[in-house]
Amino acid sequence: MSVELAAQVWGKFVQPLAAKYNLKLVSPTFNVSTKNLAWSAGFLKACVDLADDSEYPCDYRSISAISIHDYRCDTHSVNQRYKPKTGKFFTNMEESLNGYGGIDW
Fold first, then answer.
1. What is d(CA 56, CA 102) in angstroms, rounded to the nearest whole number?
2. What whole-number distance in Å separates Cα of residue 24 and Cα of residue 19?
3. Predicted model pTM
4. DSSP calls for 41-85
5. DSSP code of 98?
6. How far is CA 68 from CA 30, 36, 50, in A?
7. CB 3 within 8 A of CB 45
8. Residue 24 in contact with residue 65, Cβ under 8 Å?
9. What are 12-52's pLDDT values in tens digits?
């Protein structure tokens, strides 16, 4: 699924259903691989681009947690990849987003 379509689906279906049933949203499932990081950052950028959509706005701020899929679950790998601020996932995402939309990611 393209990032643009995913952001449209998020704004049209996911957010309204979560609001209707008072649910907290978790992001689409991300991964630390370069290909998946590009998709994840692209999804967030597409969501920002649709923030002012008159019919189905996408709000990245509606995401209360990040869902991550990874088969390496040992402490060293998890810290190396996902430790807040210094893990590969966070540093690569921050680099990919690079202030997109005027947002301090």
1. 21
2. 8
3. 0.88
4. HHHHHHHHHTTT-SSS---GGGEEE--B--S--SHHHHHHHHSTT
5. T
6. 5, 10, 24
7. yes
8. yes
9. 999 999 999 999 999 999 887 778 889 999 999 999 999 99
pLDDT in tens, 59-68: 999 999 999 8
The tens digit of pLDDT for each residue in 66-87 reads: 998 888 889 999 999 999 889 9
Tell me whether strands 25-26 and 63-65 are parallel, antiparallel or unpaired.
parallel
Tell me how far apart the alpha carbons of residues 13 and 31 are, in angstroms, rounded to a whole number: 23
Q: So where are the chain's domains? A: 3-102
* Among candidate residues 8, 5, 2, 20, the one with its CA nearest the CA of residue 51: 8
Query: Angle at the Cα of 89 (from 86 to 95), degrees rounded to 5?
Result: 80
Residue with tokens 């998709």: 39
Q: What is the CA radius of gyration of the chain?
A: 14
